[in-house]
Design goal:
- The structure holds two protein chains of two kinds.
- Chain A has five helices and three strands.
- Chain A has helices at residues 7-14, 62-75, 80-85, 88-95, 101-126; strands spanning 27-33, 38-47, 50-59.
- Chain A has a three-stranded antiparallel β-sheet, covered by helices on one side.
- The longest helix of chain A has 26 residues, at 101-126.
- The radius of gyration of chain A is 14 Å and the shape is globular.
- Chain A starts with 6 loop residues before the first helix and ends with a helix.
- Chain B is of the alpha/beta class.
- Chain B is built from 14 helices and 17 strands.
- Chain B has a seven-stranded mixed β-sheet, with helices on both faces. A four-stranded antiparallel β-sheet of chain B has the order 13-14-17-16, with helices on one face. In chain B, strands 1-2 form a two-stranded antiparallel sheet.
- In chain B, helix 3 packs across helix 10.
- Classes of the chains: A alpha+beta, B alpha/beta.
- The complex binds pyridoxal-5'-phosphate.
- The site of pyridoxal-5'-phosphate has 14 residues of chain B, from helix 4.
Chain lengths: 130, 416
């Protein structure tokens, strides 16, 4: 259990990085997990095809919040084309904790929102299986 | 059934547990502490065996065959209706309709009674503490008819807001939908008093008794509500069986909901004469084994005594509230134990209920985390979710103690 709620997970939960909103974002997208009501919104600005600024807002469990916080750190300065390539395995590896199927949904909500944003709404629907 | 002597005023939890096979499994040497009966109850052996017996020995369709099996199935199905009738003190079996669950029962009222009686501009009222199944059907009805929705909000300590009640009474609503007991706050609402007040202004009263019927004596004649819905799986019966009680005169005047077999007297190509109550509202092959098992569940509860069930749970909830109040940073929602049913919602510091439920699961404690199908209530308290422990006849102080010590573990893990 200590394994699960590691120091850095709690740190990201209590001191989230890039928390907030962007006034005039190039991309904004939000989604929720209807089962638990967790909701996340991500705002991005893009300059020359690269993520210039990123902020997230919303609320949820330690896993979903730590995951999205770490994800925003990961994509700062990353080309949008690369952001599109991020897989769920990448996110689970980044979290570095063993997860049950229910908690995997929590962990991947941030990525789902991010992909919904960078692909546009239609792309998100195609990526149902995230 | 070998239940403890009826003369003792309290329930002997150990002897009850002996009837519930599922409670005897362990994970990593840890006993199952099941605190999610508000979502669905566990089933006693008597119910499990009744289901098996039906399929093994007298499975047949009801109300149709002239052969022995069908007669037996029909007799047992109808006997279950009489058991439920007595359990809720309805005047007649004609007032007891079997449905799939509480949701189906409430939708039956919304679609059949609602579409026949609700007109544009009419007012429909429900409360902020309703389960989604007692919200969404009324929204759909309002959209279809042009009726207007009005709400009774809750106070911060979990009661219905009296100012709102007074305000909506002035509007002489067509219908009010009210839960007898909140599945989140635990609030026991004064059903009888409110029914009287709404009847005085000509309002039809629909009661959601899903969290009441399993836990306390209910008397539909005393309540005097027009409709009362509840669901079998929360009261020891299998899933897929529920009940809608309706006052006979109201049901007689209500057109059928689903059309099909079993609900007819005569069918011609151009028109149909409907069957009498209760069959008018039971189109299609019903959940025969479910109804029979609900009858067995009702027998079990009746033998135990619903007064004792209530006393047991009131004592247990009072104990749980007291123990939980000693956990730092823990906030309990809802009224004090006298007015509190079997569901206890709480939050612990900044630990999200999902994380908390996950940590408790590691101790083999099953609780619910989430919005409990009551999102308007979460909005009221401005929280995304709560953790809910809900109790039943097989829960005792030991379950509360295990919960409280696991909450201590959760505090450590979250470095509180
Ligand atoms: C108060 C209340 N009403 C209605 C329901 C719906 O019951 P069912 O899902 O069996 O229809 C529930 C169960 O979650 C409930 O707690």
């Amino acid at each position: 259990m200590e394994d699960f709620y590691r120091e850095y997970i709690l740190d990201h939960y209590r001191n989230p990085r890039n928390r907030g909103t962007i006034e005039a974002p190039d991309i904004t997208y939000e989604d929720s997990n209807p089962l638990c009501g967790d909701e996340i919104r991500i705002d991005l600005t893009v300059r020359d095809g690269v993520v210039d600024d990123v902020k997230f807002s919303g609320r949820g469990c330690a896993i979903s919040q730590a995951s999205v916080s770490m994800l925003t750190e990961m994509i700062e300065g990353m080309p949008v084309d690369e952001v599109k390539q991020i897989t769920k395995e990448d996110v689970l590896e980044m979290l570095g904790i063993p997860l049950t199927p229910v908690r995997v949904k929590c962990a991947l909500l941030g990525l789902k929102v991010l992909k919904g944003g960078v692909y546009g709404i239609d792309g998100a629907a195609d990526d149902e299986d995230l | 059934m070998a239940i403890t002597t009826p003369s003792t005023s309290t329930i002997d939890v150990e002897s009850i547990r002996a009837h519930f096979p599922i409670l005897h499994q362990e994970v990593d040497g840890k006993r199952l502490v099941y605190l999610d009966s508000g979502a669905t109850s566990q089933k006693p052996l008597a119910v499990i065996e009744a289901e098996e017996e039906y399929y093994r020995t007298y499975n047949a369709n009801v109300h149709r065959g002239v052969y022995k099996l069908s007669e037996e199935a029909t007799a047992k199905y109808e006997a279950a209706r009489v058991k439920v009738q007595r359990f809720i003190n309805a005047r007649s079996g004609k007032e007891v309709l079997f449905t799939a669950n509480a949701t189906a029962a409430l939708n039956l009222v919304a679609y059949a009674w609602g579409r026949a009686n609700v007109r544009e501009g009419d007012v429909i009222v429900f409360t902020e503490m309703e389960h989604h199944s007692n919200i969404v059907p009324w929204q759909i009805l309002a959209q279809a008819t042009g009726a207007r929705l009005e709400f009774i909000h809750v106070t911060d300590d979990g009661y219905l807001n009296e100012d709102d009640i007074a305000r909506v009474l002035e509007l002489r609503p067509k219908l009010v939908a009210l839960t007898a007991v909140s599945n989140v706050l635990g609030t026991i609402n004064p059903v009888k008093e409110l029914t009287t007040r709404f009847h005085e202004v000509g309002t039809t009263v629909v009661i959601d008794a899903s969290q009441a019927a399993p836990h306390m004596p209910i008397d539909v004649r005393d309540w005097d509500a027009d409709f009362v819905a509840f669901t079998g799986h929360k009261m020891l019966a299998p899933t897929g069986i529920g009940v809608l009680y309706g006052k006979r005169a109201v049901l007689e005047a209500t057109p059928p909901f689903l059309g099909g077999g079993d609900m007819i007297r005569e069918v011609h190509l151009g028109n149909t004469r409907y069957a009498d109550l209760p069959y008018k509202f039971e189109a299609g092959t019903p959940n025969i084994s479910g109804a029979i098992c609900l009858g067995v569940a009702v027998d079990y509860l009746t033998e135990l005594g619903m007064d004792r069930v209530r006393e047991h749970e009131k004592e247990l909830v009072a104990y749980a509230m007291q123990q939980l109040s000693e956990v730092p940073d823990l906030k309990v929602y809802g009224p004090p134990a006298e007015d509190h049913g079997a569901a206890l919602s709480f939050t612990l510091a900044d630990i999200h209920p999902h994380d908390l439920a996950h940590i408790l699961d590691r101790e083999n404690i099953a609780v619910r985390a989430g919005h409990h199908c009551a999102q308007p209530l979460m909005e009221h308290y401005d929280i995304p979710a709560t953790t809910r422990a809900s109790f039943y006849i097989y829960n005792g102080h030991d379950d509360v103690d295990t919960l409280v010590s696991a909450l201590g573990r959760a505090r450590e893990i979250f470095q509180l």
